[in-house]
Amino acid sequence: MAEKTTTGRLLAAGGGILLIVSLFLSWYGFDVGGLAGQYMAAVDTSASGWQSLDIGDFVFLIVGLLAIAPAAFDIFDLEIELPFDVSFVSLIGGAVSIAWIILRIIDKPGPDVPDIAGVDYGIGLKFGIFIALAGAVLIVVGGVMQKGEDDST
Asked: How many Cβ atoms from other residues are within 10 Å of residue 37's Cβ?
């Protein structure tokens, strides 16, 4: 059963799980300093991956599920013939996810807010986006290892 599961498939599956879980964690936060920051302390100013991504949340969900699929097929001893190589598709999806997440780190979302005297504000990065990046990197590393393991057999 699970003896057939390779290290590459397990790494990619772990990355897929991290990528999916990260969608529910905080990716961005609206940081307010100065006098106004004292009044904003009781307001939730963070946004999760689901809240801050338009179509990206569904793309990351699909990439995560595709990364989990090969290990799940091995663990549950399923012999499913698909018209495409799931490990290659998850490898490409992981690479696209890395690029997309890096773009979201560089180009943070949010409206252009005019300067207000005495108020220091900005959109900050939270830990969820870095967990998503780690998950996407694991998917790519696991996909590369899967390709090497498939070529050696």
From this structure: 13
**CA–CA dist 58, 63 (Å, integer):** 9
Which element (helix H / strand E) includes 92? Answer: helix 86-106
3-class DSSP state of 113 = coil
Decide if 141 contacts 1 (C-beta within 8 A). no
* CB atoms near residue 132 (< 10 Å): 30
Encoded tokens for 121: 């504000």
Which tokens in the block code for residue 56?
A: 């990206």
Amino acid sitting at position 150: D
Question: How far, in Å, CA of 57 to CA of 53, rounded?
Answer: 6
C-alpha–C-alpha distance, residues 99 and 57, integer Å: 14
pTM of this structure: 0.84
Q: In what order do the strands lie in the sheet with 26-33?
A: 46-48, 26-33, 119-125
Question: pLDDT 10s digit of each residue in the chain, 153 long?
Answer: 456 778 889 999 999 999 999 999 999 987 666 555 555 555 557 888 898 888 989 999 999 999 998 889 888 888 878 788 877 888 899 999 999 999 999 988 766 666 666 666 678 889 999 999 999 999 999 999 987 766 666
